[in-house]
Amino acid sequence: MTITLTFQSGTDPDIAQVQVQNKLQLAMPLLPQEVQQQGIGVEKSSSSFLLVAGFVSDNKSLSQDDISDYVASNVKDAISRTSGVGDVQLFGAQYAMRIWLDSNAMNKYQLTPLDVINQLKTQNNQIAAGQLGGTPSIPGQQLNASIIAQTRLKSPEEFGRVTLKVNPDGSMVHLKDVARIELGGENYNMVTKINGQAATGLGIKLATGANALDTAAAIKSKLAQLQPFFPQGLRVVYPYDTTPFVKISIHEVVKTLFEAIILVFLVMYLFLQNLRATLIPTIAVPVVLLGTFAILAAFGFSINTLTMFGMVLAIGLLVDDAIVVVENVERVMVEDKLPPKEATQKSMEQIQGALVGIAMVLSAVFIPMAFFGGSTGAIYRQFSLTIVSAMALSVLVALILTPALCATLLKPVSGDHHEKKGGFFGWFNALFDRSVDHYSNSVSGILRKTGRYLLVYLIIVGGMAVLFLRLPTSFLPEEDQGVFMTMVQLPAGATQMRTQKVLDQVQDYYLTKEKANVESVFTVNGFSFSGQGQNSGIAFVSLKPWEERPGKENGVGAIVSRATKAFSQIKDGLVFPFKPTRYY
Fold first, then answer.
1. Do 56 and 199 contact (CB within 8 A), yes or no?
2. Which 3 state secondary structure label does DSSP give 301?
């Protein structure tokens, strides 16, 4: 049995874990003796799976029980101890000695199940047999050794010889007389398959505050270390893994970051048309980004999709301050015919207040996001602080580094240096001047008919409000993570056989109708996020790489939509696909 506690955002998970353990210690005396003997564990983990490690055998001699017992005995604990792992769910069971009591025989010998349990506890117990040559020893004793007695029962035959009762005539009733004894699974609550082949699996959840990529890499490294010791034919697969999407997301954002830097340089050069002037704002970019990384490290943040998106957005904002400085220095040099150093001094006297004001306005927009509560605050806090940090540093660079670069790198220019250019820049300048003239004429026309255009503006504002109210809302945008899950829920009282039939239908649909998109289907009969039981099941669906699924119709949203429509025809239970939680 599992009880899940959800705390408010910002709660220290370590303190919460200690407090829960303290409360459990107070309640422990009130619990049944069996529960106290088994113990109660408190673990901090996320609510969704980071990945599922599946174990399947190419050796037909290994049954699902064999695989499950090996994984439970030799793999699960090793994965549980891996840094960053919060909880490990075994989809299977260990071996156990199964004792099937015969009610007729029990009645014949006047025995109850409690009698059997008591005798098993008494006769299947580890006994300290003492020592050889223990103190006080006899004179001349030369050897001291502990005596280990093999009193634990190991085989069905040994369990069968357990004495349950001695009759008045001296005859004995053994366990084998009233029960069928065999080595089997500890329970048969779960049936797992990978693409229809018998298997078992470990559902691994991330510890609170742990890094998803580092944890997944550590898990795969540990399993690779254990692989040589697996039984012949046993191999590990990953039918559900959320980390490839995180990796490719960060890769795409990093690529976008470099593209943004290149585009910013090209646009600045297009308008400034001076390589020296263009280099000054470009130099400010890596300086500001380096400082932003340092601030993120000081706050304990990581490089993730949110912080990287914040930096991409900040690229366009942070060069604005440097461009303002460079443009104004050039203007002062042209209008006042001053050398670069004196022009820079005069320029900074004019615009330093405006630069600080710009930073304060933008900070006033983004800083409140850092204080949002709940899940929204947890998600966007890093995004907000990334932008604010970059903006604050860009102002410092514009006030300190950029003026020094202007005084050092810029050269005096004439007022008509743009008009003298030929070729592409001459054509661009002429086109831009015409655009400015058209813009000026348009603004003049609007100012002459303010009433009419004010009405147009009000219509635009009204249209914006209508669209804002009509557009659908969601907590986070939907994205193709390459994996999703399908829950199966049958009516209460449904048997495992009925649930398996529905799971087989789900599996067959994905492996036939969506064959071009689906890589593997890992089904678990007896487990779901809504509870465990014979009427519950879940399917973990792993899709093929994104490059093999081009087009929107092959995205996870379209696949889930088609599957939902197809599964609505299943009358035996409720089947609904859904996309997993995203790790940022």
1. yes
2. coil
Give 97-126+146-185's CATH code, choosing from 3.40.50.880, 3.40.190.10, 3.75.10.10, 3.30.2090.10: 3.30.2090.10
Report pLDDT digits (tens) over 271-320. Answer: 878 888 888 888 888 888 889 889 888 888 877 777 877 887 777 777 88
Residue 564 one-letter amino acid: T
DSSP string, 261-289: HHHHHHHHHHHH--HHHHHHHHHHHHHHH
CATH number for the domain whose boundaries are 47-94+187-242: 3.30.70.1320
Indicate the pLDDT class of residue 582, thresholds 50, 70 and 90.
low
Which residue, among 89, 49, 83, has the nearest Cα to 71 in the 3D structure?
Answer: 89
Residue type, 178: V
Rg of the chain, C-alpha, whole Å: 36
Q: Are 192 and 201 in contact (CB under 8 A)?
A: yes
In the predicted structure, residue 400 carries a pLDDT above the cut 80: yes
Quick one: which H or E segment has residue 496? helix 496-512
pLDDT, one tens digit per residue, over 450-509 is 888 899 999 999 999 999 888 887 766 677 888 999 999 999 888 999 999 999 999 999
Spatial separation of the C-alpha atoms in residues 522 and 239, rounded to whole Å: 6
| Cα dist from 7 to 12, 13, 47, 208, whole Å | 9, 9, 12, 12
Specify the pLDDT at position 564.
Answer: 92
